[in-house]
Amino acid sequence: MEEIAALERALRRAAPHTLLDVVRTALTERYGAREVRLWLADYGMRSLQAVEGPPWATEPVPVHDSPQGRAFGAQEPHVLGGGAAGPAEVHLPVTIRGDRLGVLSLELPGPTDARAVLPELQHVCDALGHEILVAERDTDLYVLARRATRLTLAAEMQWQLLPGRSCARPEFSIGAQLEPAYAVFGDNYDWSVSAEHLTLTVTNGMGEGTDAALLTNLAVNALRNARRAGLDLVGQAALADQAVYAQYRGRAHVSVLLLRFALATGEVEAVDAGSPRLWRLRDGAVDAYPFEAQLPLGMFEDTVYTPEHFTVLPGDRLLFASDGVYDALSEAGERFGDRALPRALASTRLLPPTQVPGAVLRRLAEHHGRPSLVDDALVVCLDWYGRQGGGGTAG
């Protein structure tokens, strides 16, 4: 562990764009490693892109049907070869607090017992992942590695606004995805975790392009400002409503679903101000949750919002979707949210929550039957485990 501590210190001192070089040097000196490469997941969660300069010099590998993708999807090390067979090819997930960043790949010389050193190598991945998140403040290297093609300006604004694509705590796990990833404009999500609560918001700003992105940015930051000022959920909705109305005077509005989960009990306070909707998978059955719809943010001045309450139980899976998901029509004119979405959610019961949004969006593409969606689409999946010893009754 002395070597791991030394590596962590070296990473903290390194220039932001040299993190992989530091790791490569350390792994070469300690294990004789070769072909050390870092892959980051692209915005569409379809490919893993090599971190290198200049960008895109190396062909990306698919998230599905590749050794790197297997480690990324399973969130476990994947080893090929090794032992008496000779060199071992090792792929390890790079994940920080449930946010799946990518994969570290390397080759260990043979004969070697690669599995014996996997715990140390995973410590290296953890240290590297933490430093990448810090380094992104000062370099574009890792941001560029996440994109398979150029983002629109609206998508650039939206992705920079997001907290991450997944998050995990003992009480819950979240996975989220936006589509079309490189041209999304109005949909967004946000979360924040304290010692006792998870606050989750799902947002859909009206309009298209940068107009929609600007509107959503205003609403999300207004909600954050209110939350960080200590306002309750109703106060957060009211402040954001006033901010949007003051800027647009009713010409534009933002639909948002705000939820605050008590980590100890599973009790949930919710404010439904518009179009994002919720489905619950419990004991194999899928139900749409019937919120009392209230006015979107910014539609009128001084809108009064009323909270609702329900309870989640350990084992519950919640799926949040924007209107671009549940209102998408098949060629026969059937809405995805009528029957196809509940079936898609039920079919994900064996998948981890990080893989659920992608699975649902793939079913949406099959249902839609056309090359591209008319609207952008957002899916957020929340698995609730509960706190050991916590209460909660069905609701």
From TrEMBL:
Gene Ontology MF annotations:
phosphatase activity
Q: What is this protein called?
A: Phosphatase
Looking up Pfam families in the UniProt record yields: SpoIIE
Any idea which UniProt keywords this protein has? Answer: Hydrolase
> SUPFAM superfamilies, from UniProt?
PP2C-like
What positions does the domain PPM-type phosphatase occupy?
Answer: 169-384
